[in-house]
Amino acid sequence: xxxxxxxxxxxxxxxxxxxxxxxxxxxxxxxxxxxxxxxxxxxxxxxxxxxxxxxxxxxxxxxxxxxxxxxxxxxxxxxxxxxxxxxxxxxxxxxxxxxxxxxxxxxxxxxxxxxxxxxxxxxxxxxxxxxxxxxxxxxxxxxxxxxxxxxxxxxxxxxxxxxxxxxxxxxxxxxxxxxxxxxxxxxxxxxxxxxxxxxxxxxxxxxxxxxxxxxxxxxxxxxxxxxxxxxxxxxxxxxxxxxxxxxxxxxxxxxxxxxxxxxxxxxxxxxxxxxxxxxxxxxxxxxxx
Length: 289
Description:
There is one protein chain. 30% of the residues lie in helices and 27% in strands. With 289 residues, it is an alpha+beta fold. The strands form four sheets. It has a five-stranded antiparallel sheet with strand order 6-5-4-3-7, with helices on one face. Strands 9-8-12 form a three-stranded antiparallel sheet. α2 (97-141) packs across α4 (240-251) and α2 (97-141) crosses α5.
């Protein structure tokens, strides 16, 4: 196919830029591109190499993270005269070789720091799981029929109404009580909410605080009295069999156990053998996936 002149528009000011390209051409090294979607604002990146597999390697100038930009275009793009795919857009200007070298060097420096930090986090998480497994084992010794726990999840709003994006993330979880069944019973959740000062107000929460969302894309049954279901404390039930790893992480954390009769349960030197057995059990489960 002969060379084709494509029209690109910058999101910021709608300035048109012309570039002569053919099907399956690669972006020139140093090309400035940008990416955005409903969750992420416009981020500028520079093409730094041809890469392998999907697309060409780019480095984002703000975060210094590496990504992949789609290789230039296919028949559909050429016919439609667009230079965009999955949120990617051409930007004005070409980075010099010195600018590319500096960007690559800063990326590797940032990546090394992040790897060290990530390893520290993973090690602390492993230690927390092992400690939590020992604590959970002790708790279950006096509750042999326990099938689930009632937890309080603190959610932080991550929504962006301008882009019609609604979501939240858990920032803390408290273990409130154990249950001998897996049924969602709101009277049981209300009683458990009284075990923590943070959720005591839910004991006498109005009827509309009882949320029943057991349908596709729903959040299940939970107790929450907040102006928004994306922010605040949410009391619900977790099955121990399916949530054991996450439960152990929580129990291994600081001051997350609010079961009244278990306030003194902890992993001490006296429970070394139990911790060792717990570590072995945790490693076995992880190996099985």
